[in-house]
Specification:
about 450 residues; alpha/beta; TIM Barrel; two-stranded antiparallel ribbon; 10 strands; about 35% helix; globular
Length: about 450
């Protein structure tokens, strides 16, 4: 049976009532529910902009963060604790138990969904990733044995405790290259487990460490007023990769660490229910915004252990998010800083293989009427576009003049890049038919 699933914030089941909620979903032809088992808090947006077609407005009270019951016995002997419901509305509710019979009556399958969510427990500090200089990072290390054992216990508890058809997992994290070059943060992992894997692969550890420190210094210079070398951002970055190819090998090792965790999750589920359908959330950062993240997101490597993939596109918010990402992540003192807004957008579209080709690429009319991204931004913001620099006046890469950084109209706060992704809480789901995700098997 073809899978037609919907991502569902578990609070919607209780806000709207389970029967009403599922009746509304059934109208869209959905046959698979992906409710949050862990995480999936409210969006934090005004109720007036959410799901007006449901007839029941979602609440605004903060909700709990664990929606199912886990078996503590499966976590005995592990360094990391069994997930327990946190405070908030609907604390103690079991969404899988609530949905089981109503979903069965409608012929709907249950795939509990978890975006990597870790309790605020000091025990999780021992599985943190470490930067090239050994300092701890906020992110968790994919390869840490205790983290892998904890995820295996989470999945085993779900499949032994409930009659499930599948499971859906995701982790909205950028790879090391994106963390450093796009977000301006430290990235990668040099913990003992990653070092051991690097040695096993024949990667020179010290050269990789030196390369990451050089990449961090490059990113810091790129975001400064002076920029990197006078050769410009692109050539300077290529030179760095040629001098430190171990950086690329270490970045690949990072994403393959996630693939290894996903494979273990799939094997754990299928050891209990061989026919279980296991799918993965591919966040929008790696489908739309960032060529580095998209290049690392190798679908072909995932199909061997996957039943389906769910790439996130979010048709309604993708444009504003892309606009904010391009401006603050790539154009303003970022990787595209030497290109300017018009050429920067065209380069981004061409790099990702998007069609149709931007109108300004094949423009044959008068130069004065040539469409530009600058004009599109002005129209979207309702403000006058900043004047374009005279032809041929683009400052040199190393210039310290104010015009060295491409200008653009102010971006609404909601679309700006904050200190950590994602920019806004992911739409959790209303059972709105317009947000239905249809997922097909990759095979």
């Amino acid at each position: 049976m073809r899978l037609a699933g919907i991502q569902l914030g578990s609070y919607s089941v209780y806000d709207e009532g389970v029967e009403r909620c599922l009746d509304h979903i059934a109208q869209a032809g959905v046959n698979t529910l992906l409710p949050y088992a862990v995480g999936g808090g409210r969006m934090g947006l005004p109720s007036a902009v959410l799901a007006p077609d449901h007839g029941v407005m979602p609440g605004e009270t903060p909700v709990t963060d664990v929606w199912v019951r886990f078996d503590p016995a499966l976590f005995r002997g592990l360094a990391l604790p069994c997930p327990q419901p946190g405070p908030g509305q609907y604390q103690g509710e079991d969404v899988l138990e609530t949905l089981a019979e109503p979903a069965r009556r409608r012929g709907m399958r249950l795939h509990p969904r978890i975006l990597a969510h870790y309790p605020k427990d000091p025990a999780f500090s021992q599985v943190r990733a470490h930067a090239a200089d050994g300092s701890p990072l906020p992110a968790k290390c994919w390869r840490h044995p205790e983290l892998q054992a904890w995820w295996a216990a989470v999945v085993e508890s779900l499949f032994r405790g409930y009659d499930l058809h599948g499971f859906h997992f995701g982790d909205e994290r950028a790879g090391p290259l994106s963390e450093i070059l796009v977000w301006g943060r430290r990235g990668g992992c040099f913990c003992e487990h990653c070092q051991a894997e690097g040695r096993r692969r024949g990667i020179d550890l010290e050269r990789a460490r030196t390369g990451f420190l050089a990449l961090e210094a490059f990113a810091k210079s790129m975001r400064s007023q002076t920029g990197p070398a006078s050769d410009g951002v692109g050539l300077s970055l290529l030179r760095l990769f040629m001098k430190h190819p171990e950086v690329l090998s270490w970045d690949r090792m990072w994403i393959e660490g996630r693939f290894a965790l996903e494979r273990r999750i799939a094997e754990t589920a299928r050891a209990i229910r061989p026919e279980a359908e296991i799918g993965w959330h591919i966040w929008q950062y790696a489908t739309t915004f960032d060529p580095l993240a998209k290049a690392a997101q190798d679908y072909g490597s995932m199909t061997a252990y996957s039943s389906y993939l769910k790439p996130v596109v979010y048709h309604d918010i993708a444009g504003p998010r892309l606009r904010g990402m391009l401006t603050e992540g790539f154009l303003n003192q970022g990787l595209y800083r030497d290109l300017g807004p018009d050429l920067g957008l065209e380069f981004h579209r061409c790099l990702l293989g998007w069609e149709p080709v931007p109108a300004w690429r094949n423009w044959s009319g008068p130069a004065s009427a040539r469409p530009t991204l600058r004009g599109k931004w002005a129209a979207a913001s309702g403000k006058s576009a900043p004047p374009a620099p005279p032809a041929g006046s683009m400052p040199a890469s190393g210039s310290t003049s104010p015009s060295a950084t491409p200008t653009s109209p102010a971006i609404p706060k909601h679309f700006r890049k904050p200190s950590a992704p994602p920019w806004e809480p992911e739409p959790m789901a209303s059972s709105c038919a317009g947000n239905t995700t249809k997922c097909a098997s990759p095979t």
